[in-house]
Design goal:
Layout lengths: L1 H19 L4 H4 L12 H5 L6 E10 L4 H17 L6 E10 L4 E9 L1 H13 L2 H11 L2 E11 L14 E9 L4 H11 L9 E9 L4 E8 L2 H11 L5 H8 L3 E11 L7
Antiparallel strand pairs: 1-3, 1-4, 2-3, 2-8, 4-6, 5-7, 5-8, 6-7
Helix pairs in contact: 7-9
Length: 266
């Protein structure tokens, strides 16, 4: 039919245009990083060269206990971080400044994946000193929540950095079934957010609330954050990636966080 011929001609022009425009945004529509039909997104989007598993903790602390909580948590974190018998390490610890108030956020890395996590938990259950710490900490908390995460293959691995910095954790709650498309889009978009070394790490949940993404950024100040984010909009292609990722969202939130004194990310 005439309609079918027109459609075929349009698709032909699209393919030719994408082949002749290496830097154009239109070409990006035809580039697929991974195929959702071939494997679970946990295998397709995570780093292959490492077997890192991450745990993020959200602790809502009684306001009058926050200082004591930070001191106690730092002491125990230091011991676990430095003890080679425990296959875990602290990536970063923060208190929220804007967002949920009186909240502590901790990010842990388990080099060795789920076996390392299991080994660590078994040892902690037999550690009387740690069990006493948990009892004391529980008196200071209103609520707590854990999530297990994998890191996106196209993000930097979060490594210790000098400060002072403010950190922003942008959390995206995706529509179920959209993680592959999100990863494909951000694999292109992340190149627009590297100039000021602001990209710290990108993660997606495996256990906890599913289809949740956490992006972690570092800035010298709120003004530096504003300028860095605005500069991304002046780069060709950033607007297109934003346009195509917004429909994948159910909701999103932003936390501005201040690192604790003991945090490797300062």
């Amino acid at each position: 039919s005439i309609t079918f011929v027109k459609l075929s001609f349009i698709l032909f022009l699209c393919r030719r245009f994408s082949e002749s425009s290496d830097k154009g945004w239109f070409r990006s529509l035809f580039v697929h990083k991974v195929d959702a039909r071939k494997d679970a997104h946990s295998n397709l989007l995570s780093k292959k060269e490492t077997s890192n598993l991450y745990k993020i903790q959200f602790h809502d602390v009684k306001p009058e206990c926050l200082e004591a909580y930070n001191s106690l948590e730092a002491e125990v974190q230091k011991r676990l971080h430095e003890d080679q018998d425990y296959p875990c390490e602290v990536v970063g610890s923060w208190n929220t400044w804007y967002g949920e108030q009186d909240q502590a956020v901790h990010l842990w890395r388990y080099r060795g994946g789920y076996p390392a996590l299991t080994d660590c938990l078994q040892k902690l259950r037999a550690n009387k000193e740690y069990l006493e710490f948990r009892k004391e900490r529980a008196k200071m908390l209103l609520s707590r929540r854990n999530e297990l995460l994998l890191e996106f293959s196209f993000w930097n691995e979060p490594l210790p950095r000098q400060g002072p910095n403010l950190y922003e954790m942008r959390t995206y709650y995706l529509k179920p079934g959209t993680m592959i498309e999100w990863g494909n889009r951000w694999a292109r978009a992340i190149k627009h957010r590297q100039e000021n070394n602001e990209a710290v790490g990108g993660f997606f949940t495996q256990i906890g609330q599913l289809y949740v993404v956490h992006h972690l950024w570092a800035y010298e100040s709120l003004q530096a954050r504003e300028e860095t984010r605005n500069s991304a909009w002046r780069k060709e292609g950033w607007d297109v990636n934003v346009y195509y990722t917004v429909p994948l969202l159910q909701s999103m939130e932003s936390r501005i966080m201040i690192p604790t004194k003991s945090s490797p990310l300062q």
